[in-house]
Specification:
Layout (H helix, E strand, L loop, with lengths): L2 H63 L5 H6 L1 H27 L1 H5 L5 H19 L4 H20 L5 H18 L5 H5 L13
Length: about 200
C-alpha cells in the first residue's frame, strides 16, 4: 500500500477516534470544570467583598475619629456644625451597612478559609463588629472597639503571608480586642454570669 494512502488512513482513524472517544469525554467533563471554575470565582468575589467591607469599616472609623464636632462649634457656627454632623451620620451609616452585609453573608467568605481557626476568627469578628454597631455604646466607644477589632483582621487576611511577625501580632491584638469588649458590660453582668440553660429531660 502506498505510503500516502497509509497517511490518509491514519489521519482519518485519528480524527475518528478523537470524535468518538476524546470529544465526548471532554464534553462530559465540561460541566464539572465550569462548576469548579464558578465556585472559585464566587469564592474570590466573596473575599473581595469581605476585604471591601473591612476597609470601609477602617476608613469610616478613621474619618469619625478625626471629625468630632466640638460643642463650642454648635454655638458659634451652628450651620457648619449641622453639616459636619450630617457627614458623621453618613459615615455611621456606612458602618451599619458594612457590618450588616458581613453578618448576612458570612457563610460566603468564611467557609472558604482553610483552617478552623481562621473560620472561627472571621465568625467572631463579624458577629462582634455587628454587635458593637447595634449596641448603646457612645459613638466614640463604638469607633474605638471597631477599630481595635478590624485592624488585626486586615492584617490577618489581606497582607502577604510572609509577614509572619505582623500575622502573629495580629492574632494577639484580635484576642485583646475581644477581651476588651467585656469591659463595656455593666458590673452586674460581669460579676455574675448567667448560668447556661439546662437541657430538658424527657420521660419515657
Amino acid at each position: 500500500m502506498p505510503s500516502w494512502i497509509t497517511s490518509i488512513l491514519l489521519a482519518a482513524a485519528t480524527t475518528l477516534f478523537i470524535g468518538l472517544v476524546v470529544n465526548p469525554r471532554l464534553e462530559a467533563r465540561k460541566p464539572r470544570i465550569e462548576a469548579k471554575n464558578n465556585q472559585k470565582r464566587v469564592a474570590w468575589e466573596a473575599r473581595a467583598e469581605f476585604s471591601k467591607r473591612v476597609l470601609t469599616i477602617l476608613s469610616a472609623c478613621g474619618r469619625l475619629q478625626e471629625s468630632a464636632v466640638p460643642p463650642s462649634l454648635a454655638e458659634t457656627r451652628p450651620a457648619l456644625a449641622e453639616r459636619l454632623d450630617a457627614e458623621r451620620q453618613r459615615w455611621l451609616a456606612q458602618l451599619d451597612e458594612a457590618t450588616r452585609y458581613l453578618v448576612d453573608n458570612m457563610e460566603l467568605f468564611a467557609l472558604g478559609y482553610a483552617t478552623d481557626r481562621l473560620r472561627r476568627i472571621v465568625g467572631q469578628f463579624v458577629v462582634h463588629a455587628r454587635a458593637v454597631v447595634l449596641s448603646d455604646r457612645p459613638v466614640e466607644k463604638q469607633i474605638e472597639r471597631l477599630t481595635a477589632l478590624t485592624g488585626p483582621i486586615q492584617n490577618l487576611f489581606f497582607v502577604p503571608r510572609w509577614r509572619v511577625t505582623t500575622v502573629v501580632r495580629s492574632f494577639e491584638q484580635f484576642e485583646r480586642a475581644l477581651a476588651a469588649l467585656d469591659e463595656d458590660l455593666p458590673d452586674d453582668l460581669t460579676a455574675a454570669p448567667v448560668p447556661a440553660p439546662t437541657t430538658p429531660q424527657t420521660t419515657t
